[in-house]
Amino acid sequence: MALGGGYFKTTYAADLALVDTPLRRTALAALLVVLLVLPRHASPFVLDLVAQTALAAVGALALNLLTGLAGQISLGHAGFIAAGAFTTAVLVENRMPSPLLALPAAALVGAVLGVVVGIPALRLKGLYLALGTLALHHVVLYACGEFQNHWGANTGVSIPPPRLGAWVLKGTTAWYYALTVVAALVLILSVNLQRSRAGRAWMAIRDREIAAESVGIDVARYKVLAFVWSSALTSLAGALFAYQRAFVSVEAFGFFLAIEYIAMIIIGGLGSALGAVLGAAFVTLLPHGIDAVVAGLRVPGGAEYYLFPLKFGAFGLLMAVFLIFEPQGLVGIWRRVRNWAFLWPFRYRPLRPAS
Amino acid sequence: MTQVLATTVVVASLYALLAAGYVLVYRATRVLNLAQGDMMTLGGYFLFLLATAAPGAPALSVATAAALSALAGFFIYRLLMRPMAGHPIFAAVLVTVTLGILLRAAIVLVYTDRIRHPLPLLGLVNPPRRLPGGAVVSTFDLLTVGAAAALFLALFAFLRLSPLGIQMRAAGEKALLAAQRGINFQLLFALSWALAGFAGALAGILYANNVRLDPSLGVLGLKAFAVALVGGLDSLAGVIPGALIVAAVEVLSVRYGDPLLADVSPFLCLLAMLLVRPWGLFGTKEELERV
Fold it and tell me: Which of A64, A251, A326, B181 is the most buried (most CB within 10 A)?
């Protein structure tokens, strides 16, 4: 069987490898080649879509750490994104537009916010936690709104393109490379976090908190740690968002953005890094897919008007369909298809210890 | 000062109508219905639909719109929430979020996002009234207060005195035990959703006549769950003090702060409550962790 079995490993290096079978190595190499070749053949529009997906994937991976792995529900994700974006805006307004300063500063602000939320969140569970993070989202947006009204222009703050020495990050292709690399780094970080002590502790807490505590996991510490990692990465995504859009405004960070990110990890598959990336791609591409379908159908005039509610409704409908019928998300579908293909003509996996 | 007091009571009544929906659904199914605000909008648009279909018949339009909304609440439970039984609560809450999205999309598809005013279609006017003490409120402000008072009195009477209401309390407390005593808790859960739809529609109808009607009214619903939480998510009686507190903070921050602060003030109340007493003023102590 070409799938990683988990029980043929003979060295520690093989056990630590992220990409462990020839098939996976080939697939990864193919993906890399496609990503490298893409700028030569694809239109700027496609490159921009990939870049947007990569940016969304950073946010989705960060949320997945908190909600998917640690099981802490957050409706305040958009607040953390706003915090990162507005950290950049504040620095730009104070004539410190360097990304070398802004990106770490955004991550730091996110981490501090994570502690601020994480400590009170220790007392709250489930719905109460969701409500608390939602309230926090509004408080962060309020702070950002006050900043925007008092210091920025009333509509928002323009952000100059990031500049490192003489080199300026500008243009679709450059952003495509930058965001894909960042997303890949965050993906590796998040997979490694999942396999590390922290990730195992988070999953234990998610599955049964009391049992986790009784095997010696410091529940409070790891919960706060989950908040810190998640919000730091999210704020980083927010800072990148600010640079890429070249404009920051409170209106961009509404409650719906938080819902979009939750939809990403739900549609992708909770608790899976691959799922977060797939979900990010799905949610980012969905409106463009609907655009393409409507353009292909050549609906007579006035159809543009119905596009917005149509996209909005399709998004809601798909999210409901996944919640009700496929809680495992796209990853669940992918696993079923893969197992079916690899096990054929058998229906079940051989009995073996869980990997 | 009397004006501040009057405005507080009016705003509190609107919040109380909305929060009643949250509490009814939460008591029955432990689900927080984040679409309550959009169910309010739906009620408003039902009224608009009926007012355009049959102009000049306010009583009939209002009654039919409220009944339609209650029916909508019933079907939402049957079609969307019933399949979520046994799933994690949070998944069910997210389904209500998608419900809100779907309702809003449907409303925009049918009615566009233009601001509507059903008041002239109904053939009604909304003159300002001067209260003893000098405060000025609109007629529909007074009607909102009256409707909230009537709804709460009716709900208290229903839950205390009628057999169905007592069964509803039992099913909310422990559905399994209630089912073993022969109580049809499915019906009661559906009834809770219908009542929530009705309460939301009352808020929507009054707000649409008093202020305006547009698809984004649902935002008010987010503020109203601060009310439900301050009072205690499973306490109907807690809604009234909760609504008064949140409304007072909001009205005062409009007066002495700025509009942005007023928008966020319900959430500040919510956070303060979560830190001090997460189960609310009158709620049942539950789900609290000690670290």
Answer: A64
